[in-house]
Automatic annotation (TrEMBL):
Keywords: FAD, Flavoprotein, Oxidoreductase, Tricarboxylic acid cycle. It holds the Pfam family Mqo. Pathway: Carbohydrate metabolism; tricarboxylic acid cycle. The lineage of its organism: Eukaryota, Metamonada, Carpediemonas-like organisms, Aduncisulcus. It comes from the Eukaryota. This is Malate:quinone-oxidoreductase like protein. The keyword Transferase does not apply. Its cofactor is FAD. InterPro entries: FAD/NAD-bd_sf (IPR036188), MQO (IPR006231). It comes from Aduncisulcus paluster.
Length: 283
């Protein structure tokens, strides 16, 4: 849908760009995983390709060479599954502005209003209508309401009486920007199935002149929205809906050493873990 919208309004190479992207397998186990995943996916995604170490020397040379002079290959077997010449990168801030503009111009016989700084505090059923009250006291009525409020969606659902059996823990994801260009496209690590986050990856940042960014971090900040202080903390606490199940789930995650190591970007070795104290470097 994003690609079709941008192509329809001529936004390619303005806010939507083509880069190569791939998932990288390092070591025998990950190479086997990526190769098998490619075989099962290639009929669904005909543009998918499998890249050998020789292919990567051209596509992403810094993944292969262990030295700056590019004379020493890294010893591990590596393979990647990915695509070239596909739209992969979008300036979502600019696209949001385009969506708003085209949404307002879509039908000259209808009026589309956009209200900024109008945080919705309550949504209540009022007969066959819905009543929306904002924090500044403005009231709207509607035949139907679509809530697309990110981390606040479940918070609003709870206030309306929906999803009371659910809870969510908001996680923040940040990226580190390098001082130079290291990758030609997106490169993802193999996903850890135990972590519901995007795998660590690097890619050229279109807003930073192609400098490589690495991330995301995964940090529980205890707020639904950064820089909103105590109010957002209270909302986060309510949305977590802490009960026995939630406490057990969090406890299990904290006790799983593979999850902890992945969070800290450490390689887990059971024998080493039993004998050595691992102290990660803090960036």
């Amino acid at each position: 849908m994003i690609e079709k919208f941008c192509l329809q309004y001529g936004l390619e190479e303005k806010i939507m760009f083509k880069h190569q992207k791939m998932a990288l397998g390092v070591g025998e186990e990950e190479v086997k995983f990526i190769t098998e995943r490619y075989e099962s996916f290639k009929t669904l995604f005909p543009y998918l390709e499998l890249y050998t170490k020789e292919d990567l020397k051209t596509l992403e040379p810094k993944l292969v060479w262990a030295d700056k002079a590019q004379t020493i290959e890294r010893p591990e077997p590596i393979v990647a599954m990915g695509a070239k010449n596909e739209y992969t990168t979008v300036d979502y801030g600019a696209m949001t502005e385009e969506l708003a503009k085209e949404g307002q111009n879509a039908n000259p016989e209808q009026t589309t209003d956009i209200f900024y700084n109008s945080e919705v505090e309550d949504i209540e059923k009022d007969g066959d209508k819905y009543r929306l009250t904002t924090v500044n006291g403005t009231v709207f009525t509607a035949d139907f309401v679509v809530v697309n409020a990110g981390a606040h969606s479940l918070y609003l659902a709870h206030k309306m009486g929906y999803g009371k059996h659910m809870g969510s823990l908001s996680m923040a994801g940040s990226f580190y920007i390098t001082s130079g260009e290291f990758l030609n496209g997106k490169v993802y690590m193999v996903q850890n199935d135990k972590l519901p986050f995007a795998a660590l990856h690097g890619d050229p940042d279109i807003l930073e002149n192609g400098k490589t960014r690495f991330g995301p971090t995964a940090l529980a900040l205890g707020v639904l929205e950064r820089y909103k202080g105590l109010k957002s903390f209270g909302q986060c606490l309510k949305t977590m809906n802490i009960d026995g199940s939630a406490t057990s789930c969090l406890g299990n995650a904290q006790r799983d050493i593979t999850v902890i190591c992945d969070y800290l970007n450490l390689e887990f070795n059971e024998e080493q873990f039993n004998t050595d104290l691992v102290e990660p470097e803090i960036a």
